[in-house]
Amino acid sequence: MKTIYMLFLVVFLLAPSTIFALDENGNFESIEEQDRFIAETLKKMAIEMNSQTPFMMDSETQFSSALSLGKTLNFTMRLINFSSKEVNTDELSKYVLENVNDIACKNEATRNLIDLGVTYVYIYFGNDDRFIMRVALEKYECD
Description:
The chain is α+β, with helices and mostly antiparallel strands. It is 41% helix and 23% strand. Helix 3 packs across helix 4. The radius of gyration is 16 Å and the shape is globular. It starts with a helix and ends in a 6-residue tail after the last strand.
């Protein structure tokens, strides 16, 4: 899905310069320190993405906002051509998961973040501003 691919490009063009900074010994002092660093990096990424919202990911999907909560990065999407009642959530969920998994497999930074416990959450709303579904990517499966 072009939408999700573009979103990952936006996120991971920001990530490489900051996500893997290490202390003077080349390591974090603790898992807690690493987790705080990851959470702070995700927060900065969400702020940067939100400075450009809303924007169209493709002809049907508007990226509305990003929100980081700890090691979770939430993306809110609005399907501008469909009301919440017109969307088959099973089909959309399957499509979104297959595409974000494929992107994760192709992007080392994405895989590294997921391996460190980051979860990507995609929240979809219809053009009636009613909730459609939530899809979380917590792990990936590459061929």
